[in-house]
């Protein structure tokens, strides 16, 4: 039974939520392995739109078990809000949601530190979501983080909050001139949250191991994306976790030998929220047009996303770093009205042509994109059921992207609805989940 990772290949917001939502009926467990409520996974089911921040999108399917792994950082207030809104809309959480006891908590001082640190950086800010994700991972790596299991032990929780505040309050006041906290201000709400969350907190690594032994099929749902990975992304303009496929193992406790495949999700163009290098970025009116057509505004912060052409250098890098077997390409329809479409095939740096992604800040900052131009199809693609229904120029675009990335496409998405999806023949996806074919046709 294949267990697969679904990972973003660009700078996030590729449409992973929709892909996971399509695959969920064909598997038993969906597990989030990194990030926190900085993520926003949008799933449209009929007329209903769900934006999930911490809970895996598999929760929208009755009977799918959803796990928040140890690699995730959890803001309990925000998680409970999300849980309540799902319950109000008829989603059953009991018996379907499991939270790792080792996942770290985002504490009230983390968002304050996040925003204060950004303000201090000024023009060199990262452009974070301000949710406290970076500071929570800093505490995790610094071995002073507070974990879900600590919520269940009041004495230990109090001790850890006191120890943290002794240092954090000084940093907040003396370095950032920001608000400080009392122990009770934190413990009162967090002990209430503990009561709410206790039934869901468990040893999820053990559960996952038992489920895999029993033949359950597990999907590892990535958050953010390859270029935001703390080790492999455009550092320092990244998030603070391992968003790439390797994180699926450390972020859940499932060993690499039990993961069988990796599906990458890429947009037919590129977007990025926040600061940092973006070689194929579009400027001016063109960027505005794509932003409007693609509704490119952050689902967590509402910020306008920067837009750019498809960057094959980034995609090849994502294929290599994640070991991607197949790609789901999303939002093809957003390009329907473009007369000409550019694809970035390499970068020019100090007179040389580079085709492998340069990881260092300096080359990236000055690398100039080298483009190939294809003519647009100027015809709606939404509603196409088969690749052969697509206009020939759209098929040519897809073929060229497959050539440049070196892996076959498995799905082409032409709209937000589940059925606005084309399944590609001869992709590993249909070998992994043969029943997807009948559910989409
Ligand atoms: P942080 O994760 O809030 O620390 O933000 C670090 C960087 O990651 C910023 O550029 C954010 O805009 C970006 N980022 C974080 N989460 C997402 C996401 O879900 N989609 C796209 N960008 C994100």
Characterization of the model:
This protein is an alpha/beta fold. It has two domains: 4-95 and 203-440, Adenylosuccinate Synthetase, subunit A, domain 3 (Adenylosuccinate Synthetase, Chain A, domain 3), CATH 3.90.170; 105-199, Adenylosuccinate Synthetase, subunit A, domain 2. 34% of the residues lie in helices and 20% in strands. It is built from 15 helices and 20 strands. The chain has helices at residues 16-23, 76-88, 109-121, 133-141, 148-151, 154-175, 183-197, 204-213, 247-250, 284-293, 312-322, 361-366, 392-405, 428-432, 436-440, and strands at residues 4-8, 29-32, 41-45, 48-52, 65-68, 73-74, 97-100, 104-105, 201-202, 218-221, 261-267, 270-272, 306-308, 310-311, 326-330, 340-349, 352-354, 368-375, 409-413, 421-423. The chain has a ten-stranded mixed beta sheet, with helices on both faces. Helix 3 (109-121) packs across helix 4 (133-141) and helix 6 (154-175) packs across helix 7 (183-197). The radius of gyration is 22 Å and the shape is globular. The structure holds inosinic acid.
- State the name of the first-level CATH class of the largest domain: Alpha Beta
Biggest sheet architecture: 10 strands, mixed
What value does the average pLDDT take? 95
What is the percent of helical residues?
25-40%
Strand content: 15-25%
What is the radius of gyration computed over CA atoms, rounded to a whole number of angstroms?
A: 22 Å
């Amino acid at each position: 039974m294949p267990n697969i990772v679904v990972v973003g290949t660009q700078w996030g917001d590729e449409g992973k939520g929709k892909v996971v939502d399509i695959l969920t009926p064909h598997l038993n467990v969906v597990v989030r392995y990194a990030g926190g409520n900085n993520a926003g996974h949008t799933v449209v089911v009929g007329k209903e739109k769900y934006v999930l921040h911490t809970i895996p999108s598999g929760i929208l399917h009755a009977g799918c078990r959803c796990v928040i792994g140890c690699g995730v950082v959890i803001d309990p207030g925000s998680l409970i809000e999300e849980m309540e809104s799902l319950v109000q809309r008829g989603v059953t959480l009991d018996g379907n949601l499991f939270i790792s006891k080792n996942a770290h908590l985002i504490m009230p001082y983390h968002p304050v530190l996040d925003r204060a640190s950004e303000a201090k950086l000024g023009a060199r800010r990262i452009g974070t979501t301000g949710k406290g994700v970076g500071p929570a991972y800093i505490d995790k790596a610094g071995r002073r983080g507070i974990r879900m299991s600590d919520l269940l032990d009041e004495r230990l929780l109090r001790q850890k909050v006191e120890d943290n505040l002794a240092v954090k309050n000084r940093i907040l006041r003396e370095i950032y001139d920001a608000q400080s906290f009392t122990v009770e201000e934190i413990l009162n709400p967090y002990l209430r949250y503990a009561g709410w969350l206790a039934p869901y907190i468990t040893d999820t690594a053990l559960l996952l191991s038992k489920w895999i032994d029993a033949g359950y099929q597990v999907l590892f749902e990535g958050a953010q994306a390859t270029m935001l990975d703390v080790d492999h992304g455009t550092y320092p303009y990244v998030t603070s976790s391992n968003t790439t496929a390797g994180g699926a193992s450390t972020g859940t406790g499932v060993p690499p030998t039990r993961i069988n495949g990796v599906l990458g999700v890429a947009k037919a163009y590129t977007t990025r929220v926040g600061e940092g290098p973006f070689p194929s970025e579009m400027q001016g009116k063109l960027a505005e047009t794509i932003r409007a057509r693609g509704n490119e505004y952050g689902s967590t912060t509402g910020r306008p996303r920067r837009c750019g052409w498809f960057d094959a250098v980034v995609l090849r890098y994502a294929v290599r770093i994640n070991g991607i077997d197949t790609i789901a390409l999303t939002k093809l329809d957003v390009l329907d009205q473009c007369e000409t479409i550019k694809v970035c095939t390499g970068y020019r740096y100090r007179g040389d042509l580079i085709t492998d992604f340069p990881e260092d800040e300096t080359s990236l900052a000055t690398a100039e994109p080298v483009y190939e131009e294809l003519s647009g199809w100027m015809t709606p693609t939404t509603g196409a059921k088969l690749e052969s229904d697509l206009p020939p120029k759209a098929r040519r675009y897809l073929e060229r992207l497959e050539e440049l990335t070196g892996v076959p496409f498995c799905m082409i998405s032409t709209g937000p609805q589940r059925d606005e999806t084309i399944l590609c023949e001869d992709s590993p996806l249909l070998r992994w989940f043969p029943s997807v074919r009948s559910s989409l046709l």
